[in-house]
């Protein structure tokens, strides 16, 4: 566990990563190259049915400044500039996307031993202001995440969360969508040597009175190969196997089956990440 409660986005993150990260129903190919000057170039392509989407991301690090520039097949140019530690615990992020002139945003993050704060504001005449804060320790933390639209004068987001962490388990409870849904998640390390872990997530929607439940697990077959599986109450079962065949190079094969479907339709995804 790290020092301090961290940011609001870290509440329930371990369980989310276990249940959803790396699962792929489409064919995806990623190549990352590193230069001696510190430039990182990542090219990726994803095939969704008959549609092929591609993008190129270039990352440049110079001391405590990181610049990311991304171009995709829709001629969108995204730029993110991060200034890390201009003061102890402080991080500043500036981002914008062209041709969308209203996408400019400045974010400031601050990490303390007993608090984690993140605040952002859009660079427009009537910006959306976001604030999230967490207080506590690396064991128990309480936080909130709100967004306010200055144009309409309304809160567009209002969430709250509680997290408890121990040596081998993390439990969280969040109230989302302005109190419309309640989410509880659990992550437990069964065996640290084999990276064996289990996780669960339960969401209740108060307006529809519906519940969704997802259960997942992971296990390292060997130091380079990881197996993951999950199932939810809607009858969808997914599994993946990820193998690191060279340093920072991964081959991931995942599949999903709808067990409640009459024809038992299966979706198979392939993700190949090469980082020489």
- Taken from the alpha-carbon principal axes, the silhouette is globular
Instruction: Give the CA-CA distance, first to last residue.
Output: 30 Å
The total count of helices amounts to 1
Residues in helices, as a percent range? under 10%
Give the helix/strand class.
mainly beta
* Poorly predicted tracts of residues: none
Number of strands: 19
Topology pattern, helix = H, strand = E: HEEEEEEEEEEEEEEEEEEE
Q: Could you tell me the mean pLDDT?
A: 91
The share of residues in extended strands comes to over 45%
**Could you give a short account of the major beta sheet?**
19 strands, mixed, barrel
Radius of gyration from CA coordinates: 21 Å
Organism: Trapa incisa
Main location: membrane
Protein name: Mitochondrial outer membrane protein porin of 34 kDa
Pfam families: Porin_3 (PF01459)
